[in-house]
Amino acid sequence: MEVVNALGRRKSAVARVYITEGSGKITINKRDIEDYFPSPLLRYVVKQPLEALDALEKYDIKLNIFGGGFTGQSQAARLAIARALVLINAEDKKLLRSKGFMTRDSREVERKKPGRPKARRRFQFSKR
From first to last of its 128 residues, what are the pLDDT tens digits of the chain? Predict the structure, then answer.
């Protein structure tokens, strides 16, 4: 099997994934997943598509992630891994879509408006 690559985005995070056959090693920005995501919840999010297909020990995964925070990065990585797994085996798409891993979460931060402290928040009203 040759290297399969895919792209995933969430908020302002972008994840590029390169999958090869291997023993289940996940490397993010040249660091092990335990070093990059110390939280077990974020590691779980990244591994969700692999667990759904029982392929945790089947592939070696190399991720390049930049932008955003740790939550957006982990969800971008999940989308990228799911897309790469579909490129490897197209029959897995139905299962991954039913679990919600194939849909890009399009929510972005709303821009700050002029004359306000945040996007929608107004300054405190004072009657006198």
Answer: 789 999 999 999 999 999 999 999 999 999 999 999 999 999 999 999 999 999 999 999 999 999 999 999 999 999 999 999 999 999 999 999 999 999 999 999 999 999 999 999 999 999 98
Tell whether 127 is covered by a domain: no
Residues 6 or more apart whose CB falls under 8 angstroms from that of 72 comprise: 10, 11, 12, 13
- Is 51 in a helix, a strand, or coil? helix
Q: Is residue 122 part of a domain?
A: no
**Count of structural domains, the chain:** 1
